[in-house]
Amino acid sequence: MNTRLEQYKTFYIAALCGSFSEAAKKLFITQSAVSQQIRALESELGVLLFVRGKKGAKLTAQGELLFGFAQRSMNEIENAENLFARMKSLDEGSIKIGAGDTLTRYYLLGYLEEFHNRFPGVKIEIVNRVTGETLSKLNSGAVDIAFVNLPIDTVLYTTLSVIEASALHDVFVAGPKYSHLVGTKLSMQDIASLPLVMLEPKSNTRKTTDSFFKANGITLNPEFELGSHDLLFDFAQKNLGIACVTEEFASSLGAMGLFKLETDFIMPERKIGICTLANTTPTPAVVKLIEMIIADK
């Protein structure tokens, strides 16, 4: 197949030049090689493509017909090359990002604003899913890059390349109903005895918290289990319980009428993971977005 493609290219250039010798110069091959490739193509197709003469080579009727197809094909290839060149320079292209709602809002939004301002020709599509669904989308090729809460099960996701990005820390916050706890250092057992508001069990954030408490012999039984990090603040504001939230996403606790509980233990640090497929070359847009984020670490 590669030989046939080379023959069609040689035919196309020879037709444009109207001369085998000129075609040879443009293709950086000998005139004999041009003649051989044209003869091979003519033999394959069973037609005469050129009338050779002292003044050059003129297309036959069949040659004119083939030239029309060849010209359209070469134009399409050139268009594709130009498109990829524009994509490489990030003048065009697209990037499909998989991430949860919370990471998109509190972590990615600033980077996406900067990326869009620098490369407005690149279309950005966000697919919001929980960690497991996001990684499944990445594995299937439905998204180009995924942002998730680590850790993830590396046994299940052996095809992924994972870069550790920003650190996250979980804390417990409360509303005015629990103001009597201000200044008190609470133990893990104290926290477990309070009415808790937490994310649903399938979220990575919740899994990390449950595992940490279980490792210390304590099982958490929240009053409320929610699917949105923002709702944790809303429930805490209504004094419905003590909310377990990500500290980095809770910069305005005072404005919300909430305060952070003091504890005699430190919750395990988590990381944001930037995931791509290990066996696939990332697009220029994906590479640039990763570079921007890593440079900001």
Rounded mean pLDDT score: 91
Q: What name is given to the CATH topology of the largest domain? A: D-Maltodextrin-Binding Protein, domain 2
According to CATH, the homologous superfamily of the largest domain is Periplasmic binding protein-like II
Strand order, main sheet: write it out.
4-3-5-14-6
- Which percent range describes the beta-strand content? 15-25%
Q: Pick out the low-confidence regions.
A: none
- Succession of helices and strands: HHHEEHEHEHEEEEHEHEHEEEEH
Number of domains: 3
Helix content class: 40-55%
Our count of helices gives: 10
Structural class: alpha/beta
Q: Work out the number of β strands.
A: 14
Round the Cα radius of gyration to an integer and report it.
31 Å
CATH class of the largest domain: Alpha Beta
CATH architecture of the largest domain: 3-Layer(aba) Sandwich
User: Sheet bearing the most strands, described?
Assistant: 5 strands, mixed
**Shape type:** rod-shaped
N- to C-terminal distance: 48 Å
